[in-house]
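Example record for the data management plan.
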Amino acid sequence: MKSADEEVERYIARLPPSEGLAAGFRAWGLEYRWFALLTTVTGNVAAMLAGTIINVAIPDIMGAFGISQADAQWLSTANLAAATVAMLASSWMVRVLGLRQTVNISMCLLLAGSLLGGMATNTGIMIVARVMQGITAGVLTPLSTMIIFQVFLPGRQGIAIGVSTVGIILAPAIGPAIGGVLIDTFNWRYVFYLGIPFSLITLAASFAFMPARQALATRVPFDWNGMIVLSLALIALLVGLSNGEKDGWGSDYILGCFAVALLSGAGFVWWQLRVEHPLLDLSLFANRNFTIMGLNSFVFGAGLFASTYLVPLFLQLVQHLSATQAGALMIPPGIAMVLVFPYAGRVAELVDHRLLISGGIGFFAVSFWLMSGADASTGFWTLAWWLVLSRIGLGFVMPALQLGGLSHIEISRLSQASAAFNFVRQLGGAFGVNLMSIVLERRHIYHADYLLSTQTYGSSETLNALGLLRGMSHTLGFAGTEEWHAARAFLQGMVQQQALAAAFRDSFVILAIAFLLTLIPTLALKPRKAVQAG
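Corresponding structural encoding:
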């Protein structure tokens, strides 16, 4: 046997047993670990592009279909909710269908959802398309972590996590920039098609590098009852949160939604503790580090997805940037992540996770605290550097969270643990987008009511402003009483813009505080010893 072959066999012997992965190493050598990882990363890039790039198109979609910001947030929430539930099906699909079929089915569903979204004629069809894309993201997201812990030895897993996270996080970083160009050059429909090339590449790579289902793998029944009850709980809760402002938080409809969510959630937990093959293995949360890392992941998911939803809206609705300019602002933060993640992945295996997570939390909190001072006149590069801080924080936190949460889980439970861990983060994302949408709307109403109450004819500042606006109205062709009507309309529009900017600032403060609160459970983590490269 050649020395290279001997090295491969020694490497395989140190990995968890897997016929399919062993065959891949024998065919491609040690480079196979990167081929397998990059296949799942490319699929995740396609799914993440589909999931987040629409944020830069939301203002155009609102105008095209005549919907409010509260209705438009469902385009993000529906995607996140579908991804959240689908993540728990990922482990079962891999076990029953194998990695190759799981990836292939997911990519075909993403292609169909992307085409349907691009051709949608109403918001209902678009939401269905977003759900299809979300299911794909949910199934694929845990796969990179599963692959890393199966083909990389301890000591190299941190680097692999850093590299994989670069690909996954880079998509929502550069996607809005490309999407902005597509919107300004063509129209918003083209953002749905951006992930199609990555989907086709992933399909081709899957046939070459993903192992098929093992012949002796045990087939287990799918927990349909758990899936249905969990979906009901999540949908009822999100519907209640989304419509509470419109229908009244104390209305029978909203209270009914919350009651259904509470009962369904309790029923889901009860069922998971009794079924033989649960959708979510709750016994994983008996591990203190897994639970704490999961809690932090929930908060970071909420903050990350909420920020990717709020920032493009702020740039377009408050600063009146074009879609291209709003997307371009996300490029510097994306470059920062590319530089930080591989290094942070290695550091995560050498440094106490509490230090890395606390430092990352600090960067995030400072970033959004600075964002709370932004207004319509804040400069492009000032905003860019503030967002760079948040992405540096993300770079140090995410590898530490994954290693800290999963490194002590038995390999036989790794697929369940990976799915559960990502489920918690995605659940946080769904809540984050929904709740921050509510906060934004409520704070906008509050500030608008307050500012409008100060605009009275007894105020000299108001009269001076109306005088200036009347002159502007006259130059625009208004005459007589129309000048005053136009001046009052202009003044009301200015007040609404100031109220909207203030609402965004309040939202950024809330995000900063939420990140700081994760310092509390972080201090309860057990210290982790450094791991030498294997």
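Summary line stored alongside the record: The domain at 3-213+277-447+500-522 is CATH 1.20.1250.20 (Growth Hormone; Chain: A;).
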